Amino acid sequence: MQKQTKAIRIQAERSHNREHSVPLYLTSSFTFDDAEEGRAIFAEEKSGNIYSRYMNPNVDEFVEKMVMLENAEDGLAFSTGMAAIFASMAGLLKVGDHIVASNALFGSCIQILTKITAKWGIECTFVPGADLKAWEAAIQPNTKFLFCESPSNPGLELIDLMALADLKKGRDIVLAVDNCFATPILQTPLDLGADLVIHSATKYIDGQGRVLGGVICGKKVYMDEIRFFARHTGPSLSPFNAWILSKSLELLDLRMQKHSENAQALAEALDGHASLVRVKYPFLKSHPQHDLAKRQMKYGGGILTLDIKGGFEKVVAFSKALKIASISPNLGDSRTIITHPASTTHAKIAAEEKVALGITDGLVRVAVGLESIDDLKADFIQALNAIQ
Question: Which pTM value belongs to this model?
Fold first, then answer.
């Protein structure tokens, strides 16, 4: 059975009401038939729901689908993507451990690695993501965790995940990959040697900008430790959000195909425009890692970047000239969204780091939606023409 079919047909056990669509289990806790059943479930001698901070039928259904899509052994859902990222580290690392991470990360990830885990005696070395020699050189005897995004936010840098996984062979190191931009439709990092894959489900997993959520999928031996941390610290996903996310997965395959098709067409239409320094998209031949993108990803994804000549002043004019796209820090919506990373999502990154990551004052991240591609091309071209 194909994954698309499973994403639609997997659902929580049907109740005595014989519902076709899974109901919402908006309950904080669950009952036991008697005290002995309660004891047995708490002792893990018998399976069963206890408390929605631990488990809930809606959350379990969502996780089961994500585990299936990512070809994982186990999974756990969280209230947000950042909660999932933090839990992956807090659940597995201790004082004295060392992390090697790509320098091309979402702004909040960098804050965690420089301001939070550092307070607990967990050091992090940042390396250029595509430089495998830099990764290898940064690994120390106490290195326990490798973390990256591929493609990265916002620079669309790709990492050869199979080659990166090879670097940890024979070592007690966990490789965690943020798969938010690609989703399990475009790539499955666990199949390339990763141990954990993490998502901000707020983005493409939801797909309509409605709810927050996060998820980790991966090897059970690591998920058990993360589950212990999460169970006792409480970054749990709400049943309502899980219900929304699970229903969204039914159309994820179709949505990602269309997002990618639209993004490819828009990137090609804008490439070479006089108002732009460059257009960057993984499946454009001009992308520096085009061959890796074609080898590692099924489609190019729904994100492209535009580097607008004239810096922030021209970005402001461009944003005002657009008629269709929304201006928001989010992405993965059915509606096209533009973001100016240098002043929003990556504003707290040091100026020299922004330069190294290609986050210029003119860089605009475009999360291409599901609108008519003809309408999108016409709108972006007229807005770029207006600022020449």
Answer: 0.95
